[in-house]
Amino acid sequence: MMVQLQGLLSTISVLDIIDIVVVAYFLYRLYLMLKNTRAATLGKGLLVLVGFMLICRWLNLHVISWLLEKSMTVIMVALPVVFQPELRRALEQIGRGKLFHKSSELDEQELEEMLDSVAHATKIMSKNKVGALMVFERATGLVERTATGVPVDGLVGSGLIQNIFVKDTPLHDGAIIIRGNRIVAACCLLPLTENRNLSQELGTRHRAAIGMSEQSDAMVLVVSEETGTISIARNGELMRYLTVDDVKDILRTAIFKPHTTGKNSIVDKLKNLLGGEKK
């Protein structure tokens, strides 16, 4: 065994090591790019399909194997269309030389400061009936959505949020996308839900919030311009008539880390939301 291992190692040159390292690096960069987009979910589905096809071959399930092979051919042709936004962004990053991306996690103090700022801004805008739409990025990256808006890259602050959503200002129309404790972009376009069973009193902001939550795991906070009502959308469902304390508790619980509160109303609302009950 040792002789065979030594013989194998003797055939590896410095160029082979460089080749492996370069390939590994670019695969890692590809993983990071996909990790920050919905393409990660599609990639997982593709891997599951390939694994299922290999199992069918091993079990000699010829009909299923043939169908899966034909399906894989169609999928490979469709991949450039499905992954078009990711491919375009990858080429743009290569052209700009942006090969490194750093992600930061919030510590407890930064988390509470961010939640306080969001809650305070939400309270003021609700009182003054200023419409607002805030998207909180979670596991599914929203890079393709931030590309539709104006880059901000500013620390989350109550004053900044309120200034963005002041009516008739350049950035007020659209959503802001928050990643961690930073506002990544403003004036972002969100997809509208196709659910036709929603209440007629829900406007474009609420329908955009629901649509965004249908296509990702993001939490979307909405302040109604007509009534000042505060709502949160998640998983295609809308939780309405919230207070700023509700907002802080729900965001803390659902986005960042498990958190138990003594307020039964908040727990019940969160259970209804996670359980898929419509508000």
Can you offer a commentary on this structure?
The chain is α+β, with helices and mostly antiparallel strands and 279 residues long. The chain has two domains: 2-96, no CATH class; 108-274, YojJ-like (1. The chain is 55% helix and 13% strand. The chain has eleven helices and seven strands. The protein has helices at residues 2-10, 14-35, 39-58, 62-82, 84-96, 108-128, 143-146, 158-164, 204-215, 244-256, 264-274, and strands at residues 132-136, 150-155, 175-179, 182-188, 219-223, 230-234, 237-239. The chain has a seven-stranded mixed beta sheet with strand order 2-4-3-1-5-6-7, with helices on both faces. Strand 3 (175-179) and strand 4 (182-188) form a beta hairpin. Helix 3 runs antiparallel to helix 4 (62-82), helix 6 (108-128) packs across helix 8 (158-164) and helix 6 runs antiparallel to helix 10.
CATH class annotation of the largest domain: Alpha Beta
- How many helices? 11
Helix content: 40-55%
Uncertain regions spanning at least 5 consecutive residues:
98-104, 257-265
Distance between the termini: 66 Å
- Named CATH architecture of the largest domain: 3-Layer(aba) Sandwich
Sum up the overall morphology in one term: elongated
Our count of domains comes out at: 2
